[in-house]
Amino acid sequence: MTNKLMSKTFIWMFIGLLVTFLTGYVVSTNDRMLLNIFSGPIYIVLCIAELILVILLSARVRKMNKNVARIFFILYSFVSGLTFSSIFVIYQITSILYIFLIASVIFLVFGLIGYFTKLDLTKLGTYLLMGLFAIVICFIINIFINNDTFNLALTVVSLIIFIGFTAYDIQKLKRLSEIQSDIPEDNLSIINALNLYLDYINIFLDLLNLFGKARD
């Protein structure tokens, strides 16, 4: 592998984020589309579709044709944008842009830490994954108990977990770029782009939940 893997990964990550944010913004300007998405079962269907697409990409990307993998990634980014549209309705656009900048800085800083650190973060990935499962379970529980303080604590922990994932995934990407792999470079760039995309989106959403200013 060469540094082409890293450049391709970040290009596809950027494309995914662009598709998600543009889709979310465009949908937020159309009241009929918002009503159709959030007033019925369509929102649940979209959430299930997101989950299925992530599982398919993660499990099958190594054997997919590179163009199929790219289509699946763009499709996931688009579907995420449909559900993402609610933030443009709930939060002020200036607040969204401000949080976007902060999330970008945090992602950059911890990405650089992951790239340059001499520490082996392999074991950290296992603990982060365990923490992520625990957070998901707790968020589901909080849907029923609806405790704001508990939700705040979970959001802070989630933010820490995805910051950790950022450093971990960047180090993993660096190591992949330095070795010869039997997995096609284009396919590797898509799955790594997906991982970094998810890291960034979750950092952004957690920060927005903590510091975002709602519309009047």
Report on this structure.
The chain has 216 residues and is an all-alpha fold. It has one domain (4-211). The protein is 84% helix and 0% strand. The protein has helices at residues 4-28, 31-38, 42-60, 66-84, 86-90, 93-116, 122-145, 148-177, 185-211. Helix 1 (4-28) runs parallel beside helix 4. The longest helix is centred in the last third of the chain and has 30 residues, at 148-177. The mean pLDDT is 90.
Tell me the number of strands. Answer: 0
Distance between the termini: 51 Å
Give a short account of the largest sheet.
none
The shape is: globular
Give the proportion of residues in helices.
over 70%
Number of helical runs?
Answer: 9
Question: What's the arrangement of secondary structure elements?
Answer:
Blueprint: H1 4-28, H2 31-38, H3 42-60, H4 66-84, H5 86-90, H6 93-116, H7 122-145, H8 148-177, H9 185-211
Summarize the structure.
Helix content is 84%, strand content 0%. It has nine helices and no strands.
Throw out a few tags for this protein.
globular; mainly alpha; 84% helix; 216 residues; 9 helices; single chain
